[in-house]
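Severity: low
Component: inverse-folding endpoint
Summary: output formatting inconsistent between runs
Steps to reproduce: submit the following structure tokens with default settings.
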């Protein structure tokens, strides 16, 4: 059957319309009427389809609730979005025929301001999508509560080293046709209530598939859900298949099409919605233009009590993976009925290597950007050049901090960085469990200073308390240990931090860190980690060679007291002495961090694994 010339979905015999002697088929009365009102617009468009062959070559559609490409495009909140952006950048370099879909957040996540007591204020972001993205003419619509919600897309092309580009489509409902509420559906990332979030996910999953088809992407062989937020796309595919073939729902055919990456190792982290909300959203069955998935089947796919987006994705994906080896195992325990593999995360090397190390790598390993595996040859770069590159990055950080905060930190002191989402399980305050011991260590073993950063989710009160606690502690330590908390953690600041500190600290409660990526960014700049054995660090830690571990072995549950003691021991007996007394050995560690970890924990390796194992 033909595609609807208005929205690109599969057309139906019953919605036909004759115009200038030619018969056109549509998916619904809605599109038919749209065509009738302005046929020229759609006829012109179909003549402009020379590029269509190229479009049809795209085989993989990547869906993510957030994508972070650059600080200036504030459509991300943290790890998940930046991972998506890094992944797409490597796909562009490696010419993977992919397109990406996300939402356009007109007011971003939020800008963080902190007062002297550490109270977080959330300001909405002012940015102009027109400055970065190209608005497209195509519109599609979805039915929510029996009304049509129209969606358009903005395009951003990520261009790879050899010129191959990957389009990202940012979906947007801020259109005149829509109600005031619907216009605001993509104002905020992770803002609003459950209903708001549900509608956002419907726009992403169902609207996203429709938009791709409408834009001519009809050759898609895999739909990759980066986390469960996009799982509604499975329902759209089920419906499409049904229209396409026989009226039976073809679960196997949809499973064949779908790839699911889960990112959350704790049940509370998975999105779920009450069925009455879901049913309201999908509207009155008797008014539906095409029958929605019957509720008994939806319950079979998404869970009895609530619609669990992770379950929905699990049930309709053939390939499922976690984001580190350990996380794959933990996910398997959580969902024993499914076959779950793991592909460990990475980061996009060129984005995260600072200028001074870029110059150094360019000099000794000219092809490192195309071939990050070759970073293993960093072992042969002279130590003094490694140190100088690091000191340059460190000075940049120190200047930044001193200018921003007025605190006078210096570039000779061992500088420890901790920056990530301020969530309770990340235990940013673990290092301050015993302030007395910390002061003593700094006095006896050698000076240390700390730089913190990170936003708390607007509704995460425990996370906000954590920020206050760090800031109050920094006051208490004044004059003895310098501690600063930098406002508004984003990609730009992250790069200054991960490259400028001497040591990257991470203290999550096991097994809650699915992967973690900031330690990989640090590794690309020769900065070793001191971290709990969880997530990627289980794979990345070689004690005394790529950094240090804190606390018990991976399988054992975390104990705050023991972890804090272990952290202090490592600082006192291994790290501080090596940094001040064994400087040669320290620089050797820096080389091994790059050679062993940067050469592996990058998105080029990760993308190749997805292509081989998942697509
Ligand atoms: C890398 C990054 C993150 C994720 O870091 P994790 O170690 O995975 O928590 C979050 N926010 C920003 C701004 C980042 O650059």
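Observed output (run 2 of 3):
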């Amino acid at each position: 059957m033909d595609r609807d010339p208005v929205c690109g979905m599969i057309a139906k015999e019953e919605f036909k319309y004759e115009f200038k002697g030619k018969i056109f088929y549509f998916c619904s009365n809605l599109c038919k009427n749209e065509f009738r009102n302005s046929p020229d617009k759609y006829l012109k468009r179909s003549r402009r389809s020379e590029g269509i062959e190229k479009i049809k070559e795209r085989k993989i559609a990547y869906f993510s609730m957030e994508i972070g490409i650059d600080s200036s495009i504030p459509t991300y909140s943290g790890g998940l979005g930046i991972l998506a952006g890094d992944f797409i950048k490597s796909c562009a370099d490696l010419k993977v025929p992919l397109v990406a879909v996300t939402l356009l957040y007109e007011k971003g996540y939020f800008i963080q301001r902190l007062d002297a007591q550490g109270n977080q204020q959330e300001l909405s972001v002012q940015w102009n999508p027109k400055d970065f993205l190209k608005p497209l003419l195509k519109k599609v619509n979805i039915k929510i509560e029996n009304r049509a919600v129209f969606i358009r897309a903005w395009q951003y092309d990520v261009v790879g080293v050899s010129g191959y580009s990957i389009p990202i489509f940012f979906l947007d409902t801020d259109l005149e046709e829509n109600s005031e509420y619907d216009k605001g559906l993509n104002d905020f990332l992770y803002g609003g209530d459950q209903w708001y979030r549900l509608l956002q996910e419907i726009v992403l999953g169902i609207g996203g598939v429709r938009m791709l088809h409408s834009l001519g992407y009809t050759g898609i062989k895999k739909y990759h859900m980066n986390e469960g937020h996009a799982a509604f796309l499975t329902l759209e595919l089920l419906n499409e298949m049904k229209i396409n073939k026989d009226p039976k729902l073809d679960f196997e055919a949809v499973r064949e099409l779908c790839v699911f990456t889960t990112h959350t190792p704790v049940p509370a982290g998975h999105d779920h919605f009450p069925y009455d909300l879901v049913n309201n959203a999908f509207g009155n069955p008797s008014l539906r233009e095409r029958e929605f998935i019957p509720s008994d089947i939806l319950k079979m796919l998404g869970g009895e009590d609530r619609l669990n987006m992770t379950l929905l994705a699990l049930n309709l994906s053939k390939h499922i993976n976690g984001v580190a080896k350990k996380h794959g195992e933990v996910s398997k325990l959580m969902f024993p009925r499914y076959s779950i593999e793991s592909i460990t995360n990475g980061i996009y090397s060129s984005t995260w290597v600072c200028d001074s190390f870029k110059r150094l790598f360019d000099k000794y390993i000219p092809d490192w950007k195309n071939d990050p595996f070759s970073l293993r040859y960093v072992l042969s770069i002279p130590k003094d050049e490694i140190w100088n590159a690091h000191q340059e990055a460190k000075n940049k950080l120190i200047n930044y901090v001193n200018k921003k905060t007025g605190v006078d930190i210096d570039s000779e002191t061992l500088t420890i960085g901790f920056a990530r989402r301020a969530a309770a399980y990340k235990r940013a305050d673990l290092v301050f469990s015993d302030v007395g011991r910390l002061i003593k260590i700094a006095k006896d073993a050698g000076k240390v200073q700390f730089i913190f950063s990170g936003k708390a989710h607007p509704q995460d009160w425990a996370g906000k308390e954590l920020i206050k606690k760090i800031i109050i502690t920094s006051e208490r330590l004044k004059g003895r240990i310098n501690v600063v908390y930098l406002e508004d953690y984003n990609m730009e600041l992250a790069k200054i931090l991960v490259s400028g500190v001497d040591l990257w600290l991470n203290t999550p409660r096991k097994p809650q860190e699915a992967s973690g990526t900031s330690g990989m960014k640090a590794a690309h700049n020769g900065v070793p980690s001191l971290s709990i054995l969880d997530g990627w660090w289980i794979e990345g830690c070689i004690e005394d060679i790529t950094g240090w571990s804190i606390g018990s072995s991976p399988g054992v549950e975390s104990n705050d007291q023991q972890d804090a003691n272990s952290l202090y021991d490592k600082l006192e007996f291994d790290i501080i002495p090596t940094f001040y007394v064994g400087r040669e050995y320290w620089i050797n560690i820096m080389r091994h961090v790059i050679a062993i970890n940067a050469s592996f924990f990058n998105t080029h390796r990760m993308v190749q694994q997805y292509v081989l194992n998942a697509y």
